[in-house]
Structures are given as structure tokens and as C-alpha cells.
Amino acid sequence: MASRQHHIIMTSAPANDSRTEAAGQPSSVVDSELKKFSDLAAEWWDPDGKFKTLHQFNPVRLAYIREQACAHFGLGTETLTPFNGLRLLDIGCGGGLLCEPMARLGADVVGADAAEKNVRTAQTHADEFGLAIDYRATTAEQLVADGEQFDIVLNMEVVEHVADVGRFIADCASLVKPGGLMFVATLNRTLKAFGLAIVGAEYILGWLPKGTHQWEKFVTPAELIAALHAADMRVKDRAGVIYNPLAGAWRKSTDMDVNYMVAAERRR
């Protein structure tokens, strides 16, 4: 239950809570969401801080991305840098928790986030470790307007924070080269997700601040897959992610009732 920290689907926003972006089109950015993550920017790399759950969640996401991308592009799985030659975008990159391992895998990484404080935090951390990552304070709409394209687009725990899920997915899909991949991760809108991601994580276990989630804003797999199909993306794989309290770790599962991930290919 992470969003780029946590999960809260923002399928719609108040009329005065969104921006105007490239070419006069409404922006996907929701100002209240932007402020929330800007206020937390300094905490991204504290594994015991507000993003602790995301740090624990990260290994499952990384393994899934590597597995699916290597299979799709026919990459060697034994080399330390199988993503050499691939250009990758992490949209809504936050503090760079996915960008850095992607760069270490050899990818040419662009990390984009609408919150400038997040970008500064991410750049400072990457510089400390000598990682060449192109961080930008920008949006998907602007990247589309700039004519950018990538072999892989990571859209992880972001759709729940945007003003219009369908339009955001379409914009991100246009950033994927024909034959490229997009990865999407979010929370399912089920009673089980309400119980675990809101009641359990926020009010009982205290993993997340109270009020982090809005259950009605979660996105079902059917809704997400419909948006991907409408954007000319073909779903290649889907997987759930569950928490094992005995092991204290997250793992991939066939159970998509709460957290889930989707890998989709841009049609050639």
C-alpha cells in the first residue's frame, strides 16, 4: 500500500484543484496531491520514516519490472546491467526510489515529478552515489508536448493521484515507443482493500497517516485495463502483491484484491 508513497486514486478533482498544462489542455496534476508529497520530500530516503512501507514494497516491484522487461526485450538475465540501451521514464518518480535501481540496471533514466522538492531530493541523492539520472520537474502532458518517447514507462502508484485516469494513461501510453512497455501499479476498489489499506494500514497498524486513502478513488483492474486498451496498449501480464505478516515482507501473488501491477505493450 504505497502511493508513490501510498495509494489514493484521484480519478476526479474539484474544479479549482487542477492545473492547466501543455497546449492549453487540463493537467493531470492535482494541487492537493502535489502539496502532500512536496511536504514529505525530505523523507523519501528514510527507510524507517513516512515511506517505510514503500521501501518494503520496492523489491517486489523491482523484481517484476526486471522479469517482465527482460522477457519482453529478450535481455540477458545473468548480467548486472541488462537494461543497457533502454531509455526509461519513471513518471511521478518522487524521491527516485525506482529511478536509482533502474539506472544501476543500465537504463538511461528520466525521472519526472510535478513536485520540484521531490526532484531536488532525488537529484541530491543520486549525485551522492554518482548516478547519472535525468531528473525533471515536469508532467506527462509536457513530456508528450516535447515529443519524448521511451522503451519503458514506469507508472507506479501514480494513477490514484491524477485528475483523470483515462487521459493520464493515454498520455503515458503516447510516451511509450511502439513495441515498448508500460508498468502500472495501484490499489483495487474492493471491500478487502478498504479493510486492509484503510482500516488496517491507517487506523490499526498506523503504517500510513490517517486519511491517506479514499476508497472510492481506487481503480479496479477492469477499469485500468479498459483505459490501457483505449490507449492502444496490450496487457501482457498482471499480478497481485500481498503482505505476509509472518515474514514481514511483500510478495507477488495471484490475489489482486488489494495491490496489483500490470505490464502492457504499446502496439507496434
What's the Cα radius of gyration? 17 Å
Largest beta sheet: strand ordering: 5-4-3-6-7-10-8-9
> How is the quaternary structure best described?
single chain
- Gap from first CA to last CA: 33 Å
Strands, total number: 10
> What is the 3D shape?
globular
Q: What's the mean pLDDT score?
A: 84
Order of helices and strands: EEHHEHEHEHEHEHHEEE
Structure description:
This protein has 268 residues and is α/β, with parallel strands linked by helices. Helices cover 34% and strands 25% of the residues. The protein is globular, with a radius of gyration of 17 Å.
Describe the secondary structure blueprint for this structure.
Blueprint: E1 18-20, E2 26-30, H1 31-39, H2 52-73, E3 87-91, H3 99-104, E4 108-113, H4 116-128, E5 134-137, H5 140-145, E6 150-156, H6 165-174, E7 176-187, H7 191-204, H8 221-230, E8 233-244, E9 249-253, E10 259-266
Parallel strand pairs: 3-4, 3-6, 4-5, 6-7
Antiparallel strand pairs: 1-2, 7-10, 8-9, 8-10
Helix pairs in contact: 6-8
Summarize this, please?
With 268 residues, the protein is α/β, with parallel strands linked by helices. The protein has helices at 31-39, 52-73, 99-104, 116-128, 140-145, 165-174, 191-204, 221-230, and strands at residues 18-20, 26-30, 87-91, 108-113, 134-137, 150-156, 176-187, 233-244, 249-253, 259-266.
List keywords for this structure.
10 strands; 268 residues; 8 helices; eight-stranded mixed β-sheet; alpha/beta
